Amino acid sequence: MRRLAAPLMGLALLWPGEVLAYRPFDSTDAAVADRNVWEIELGPLNWRHNDDGTQWVVPAAIINYGFADNWEAVLEGRNNILARGGAKFSDAAASLKTVLHEGSLQEKEGVSLGSEFSVLLPGIGTEDGAGLEWTLLASDRKDDYAWHFNIGPMLSRDGHGGMVMGGILEGPKDWPARPVAELRYERAFGGDELFAQLIGLIFPVEEHLALDIAYRHARENGRPDQQIRAGITFDLGK
């Protein structure tokens, strides 16, 4: 997977494109990439500190492809370079995401509804085993704010059933810097538990190009995990 991701992300940096993006969150919205469009969510250099010590995430990437109307395929992962030496490839997943009901995110009235099914792939040097995750997605966008909610069951990489839940709140879409916040909870029954909080800013550069920066503080099984995330979202193919 890492061999495949590297050339795709290099191409993303060089290709002039447009996008409607969804960084820097762990949760997502009830929207997908347009048909035949590649949507790239790229964090070229992020900082992280947890029990493994200080790490540089070089890069974090989510690659979305709209292969049919209201459907997209997603491939994602993070390459972690440890300050003390060594590297780990984590948070790898392959997903299918669809819009179940068109709403405000599709320029229509009401709440947008979607669904995402993910296979949690084994990492390299971490996160052995594979898991599954299914989430129901709901989103609504107004002039002054937007909200997004995710909930669903999961099967962790170590074989425990559990649940995931996340909520995102965004400020006015017309502001040059849009404030955002997220709460995220994941629980594998008899296994790991995570609670994360994120605050940040999204900078819309143009209709299909956005920059972002955020601070995320999480506790995983009671242990702190801090991240500074910064990145860019854009598309190819339109």
Task: Tell me the helix content.
Answer: under 10%
- What is the CATH superfamily? monomeric porin ompg
Low-pLDDT regions: 1-21
Going by helix content, strand content and strand pairing, the class is mainly beta
- Distance between the terminal alpha carbons, to the nearest Å? 26 Å
Sum up the overall morphology in one term: globular
Mean pLDDT across residues: 90
Tally of distinct domains? 1
Instruction: Name the helix and strand elements from N-terminus to C-terminus, one letter apiece.
Output: HEEEEEEEEEEEEE
CATH fold-type name: Porin
What is the helix tally?
Answer: 1
Structure write-up:
The chain has one domain: monomeric porin ompg (Porin). The chain has 1 helix and 13 strands. Strands 1, 2, 3, 4, 5, 6, 7, 8, 9, 10, 11, 12 and 13 form a 13-stranded antiparallel sheet that branches. The longest helix is centred in the N-terminal third of the chain and has 13 residues. It is globular and about 45 Å long.
